């Protein structure tokens, strides 16, 4: 028997959730984990103090029928500006292939731009469309018995790859607070107090990283070594001191730059 069944959890796959007011009235605790476009958060946006900002440049989420070895950044310089691909494997023979550009190249154009890194592989679409990253912040993560976790509470730019980790850490912290605190208000307050510093730090790193990628079009010429150092230190997670201390003097594993 599955853990879900043992715990008595009932899953309603493909079912539309009731509205926030109905959920709040029926249950002791409502956990809104419905993503950056959270309908529960939107219904209570004034209570949460929600801020939503769309950042440049545009991006499109694609796949590739090739499994890259690790997280890979690809950069192709074009007459219309740089095109950046954020690539990582998610199963054998498949990788996520997220592309951002100031203009909106077609999939065929992208296949040609990155042909040297996609030998014989295809770029895959699945309701893919060009859009802009949504930066979500909330002045409060709970209201009454409704609490936000993951992207519903906060988003961090995809270039730092922390969204899933932040959501899982939220869930663990919320569960721990509910066990430790005698009251629901106390637990929700402890959850937010404990998690907010780490989340806001990651959001800051994400903004720095996003600004760096957005500024590639205006960046002056640089050597491959200078470019790689800028890439690795762009968000502040890795400093020049960290690189100096690296006895090997090489790039962190999984970082690849192409076409610059």
TrEMBL record:
Lineage: Bacteria, Bacillati, Actinomycetota, Actinomycetes, Kitasatosporales
Lineage: superkingdom: Bacteria
Keyword terms: NAD, Oxidoreductase
The protein, known as: FAD-binding domain-containing protein
One Pfam family matching this protein: FAD_binding_3
PANTHER family (UniProt xref): 3-(3-HYDROXY-PHENYL)PROPIONATE/3-HYDROXYCINNAMIC ACID HYDROXYLASE, BLR0106 PROTEIN
Start and end residues of each FAD-binding domain: 22-200
Record organism: Streptomyces rutgersensis
